[in-house]
């Protein structure tokens, strides 16, 4: 934030392996990337090429094995679990599976994205933010519904609301629009674009949707664990 | 309720919402905990009433110190030599001492029913050593065959109070109830008789007045029983007896019953099993809940919630279940006490401290289950979510 010049994500010489001993296998090779603030970056590549692995490394969900990853000016290599946790609170994650809590309403699930910043927040303000984002995702009528009363696409939109409600500095998404129809999918991307312009939110998204790729500021293509 | 918990926790009460989301499972868990509570209440009630019974067996006497054979209880034990009584009386701090005789006798009420009685014998003139329920009646026992009868022996007591109970026969001797006293129904005998030392010698075979069961002592005003007891203990060391204050003797006997007597051990095990049942039920519910929602928990972790937040949710569920189970548990327990009190004549009832102790125990057991269940949370790995 203070160092306005520094990119939000910078990878240098990142290698990654799965397994150990005989079965140890390298899946990422010498990845170096810089992602600017407020940009929409699309990652693509064939199945098994390492997109998800790279995304989880960038999202501080995995320990960096080799190389350097700097997120918002902070080095991830060797960072403690607690430091990664604090960093992740500044991100928004959109998973392929929505992973909503079945016993929480759309509103409550969304609020979980705000409560991670600890108690003491203004409850009325938080509530207004949750309602606002759910409404802008077309769920204004479903705010107090439990997930079981929502369609697959609606559930995914609640998960997106949960990820975006706290105005994250970086959004990581892995095929987030797979469960949505084309129009809803584009809506999500437009919302991310607006966030990028108004708040400088960076988005890294794995997708094969060509219409989204058309909107991207940067495209990363991975083949067999290497940048292509 | 949700709003209340939200204020208490200052967050969305996920545990509560999760529990109430599956009503059938919650009901089963609460019923299980209530049952475990009931089990524990019944066991504790029986133990407490046995404690009360022991206290009652000492109630007919009033003494500061009791000299007893080594390692034994008030009733059914060995004997002491009357010589110790004279040694005790020689102590300057001792005001008075009297022998107490305890034995068993059968009362053939009819050819088919025999009641086993505990027989207490004391000198009729030792009224100062008589407890409240015996009191001055002791003096009435001087004529041979005059007895006080335990109020718990149905039917006889009212007649005895009125002084017109029919004579009956014990071990071939005809006795006449001239009054009653309170012993309380216990586990050892059907009832009790209070008699003079002379009558005792006749009713209980093979006992002589030279070997009492215990010696009761009263100390002079201003003397501390515990100090006198310790001094007598040292002085009587060669006599194979133990000298204790009366309250110490009662405490020892209660302790013996709880820890060594088969009855106490069985009930102790009952309490343990009750607790275990509750623990297993809560663990089962929580562990399966964690397993079913591992992805959601991993999502929280990915969002930056610390591990202890997840522990907090599981613990919240555990404590809510504990409380919801305790409420019907304590109600069922009170009901069970009333039924048991009527059926057995034992002095049983719910006491606030016992209820609180069980509530605390339930909380602890549920918290332990919760902790065990959270081990599975370790497998909530956010990197596997994508
Ligand atoms: N947890 C893991 N343990 C071992 N190997 C793994 C693990 N996760 C992924 N891999 C392997 O690493 C390689 C890259 O997987 P990754 O999931 O990153 O690919 P992807 O580009 O996201 O593929 P897709 O488009 O199918 O989602 C694959 O060969 C995969 O089998
Ligand atoms: Mg993938």
TrEMBL record, chain A:
User: Where do the coiled-coil regions begin and end?
Assistant: none
Q: Which PANTHER family match?
A: ABC TRANSPORTER (PTHR24220:SF376), IMPORT ATP-BINDING PROTEIN (PTHR24220)
Give the keywords, sorted. Answer: ATP-binding, Nucleotide-binding, Transport
Q: Which residues form the ABC transporter domain?
A: 9-228
What's this protein's name?
A: ABC transporter
State the organism's lineage. Answer: Bacteria, Pseudomonadati, Pseudomonadota, Alphaproteobacteria, Hyphomicrobiales
Q: Which SMART domains match?
A: AAA
Q: Which PROSITE patterns match?
A: ABC_TRANSPORTER_1, ABC_TRANSPORTER_2
Q: Which GO terms describe its molecular function?
A: ATP binding; ATP hydrolysis activity; transmembrane transporter activity
Q: SUPFAM superfamilies, from UniProt?
A: P-loop containing nucleoside triphosphate hydrolases
InterPro entries attached to this UniProt entry: AAA+_ATPase (IPR003593), ABC_heterocyst_DevA (IPR014324), ABC_transporter-like_ATP-bd (IPR003439), ABC_transporter-like_CS (IPR017871), ABC_transpr_LolD-like (IPR015854), MacB-like_ATP-bd (IPR017911), P-loop_NTPase (IPR027417)
Which Pfam families does the record cross-reference, listed alphabetically? ABC_tran
Any one of the GO CC terms = plasma membrane
TrEMBL record, chain B:
Q: Name one Pfam family in it.
A: FtsX
Q: Name one GO cellular component term.
A: plasma membrane
Transmembrane feature ranges = 26-48, 265-286, 318-343, 355-377
The ABC3 transporter permease C-terminal domain covers 271-382
Q: Which InterPro entries match?
A: ABC-4/HrtB_transporter, ABC3_permease_C, DevC, MacB_PCD
Q: Which residues form the MacB-like periplasmic core domain?
A: 27-234
Which keywords accompany this UniProt record?
Cell membrane, Membrane, Transmembrane, Transmembrane helix, Transport
Membrane topology term? Multi-pass membrane protein
> Main subcellular localization, coarse class?
membrane
PANTHER family for this protein? ABC TRANSPORTER, MEMBRANE PROTEIN (PTHR43738), HEMIN TRANSPORT SYSTEM PERMEASE PROTEIN HRTB-RELATED (PTHR43738:SF1)
Entry protein name: Uncharacterized protein
What is the species listed in this Swiss-Prot or TrEMBL entry? Paramesorhizobium deserti
